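anyone seen this seq b4? input:
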Amino acid sequence: MDSIARSAYAPRCKAPMEEKNNLANRNFSIAHDVSRVFKCLTNPDYILARSKAMGELDASCKIARDGDRTSLHITRTVCHEADKLPKLMRRFGLRQTVVIDEQWWDDGEGKAGRFHARPGNLPIELEADLAITPTSTGSELSITQRCRVHVPLIGSTLEPLMLEQRQKDLDQEVAYLREALA
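predicted toks r here
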């Protein structure tokens, strides 16, 4: 039996959030310093304006600062386009309220953070490690996202599709960030 056939018979177990099929890393060059990028990303007015620009139905944002730590609690109401969701996920409804908790802290000359999102009644969890680091031309925003779809048997098949959609959304959000900073 060749390795492809053997892998089809291998027992499946719940994979940790770090497996490749549910992990995506992106780095974005931003032509502004760490402080300015961070200030924008943690500004409630910016977050609400970005949500509106992304076509979200509603958003709210609470922020707390404690020394070098900044915490955000964001609620976003989105309406997904049916053709952008896998067929199985459509049965949970196209309109979702996404609850996001985001924490940032000082990390040397830059900022580091964590992001956790749970989209309403969808069986999905999104996590991300965030970093803003200084560069000679401004800063670099690094985002490593992980996705877990809690649907037996097919969750690991849906995770790359959900991450792909999240990557497209992230490209739009970073384009909006660059425009807001200009």
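Residues 1-19 have pLDDT under 50 and may be disordered. The longest helix spans residues 155-181. kinda curious what u guys think
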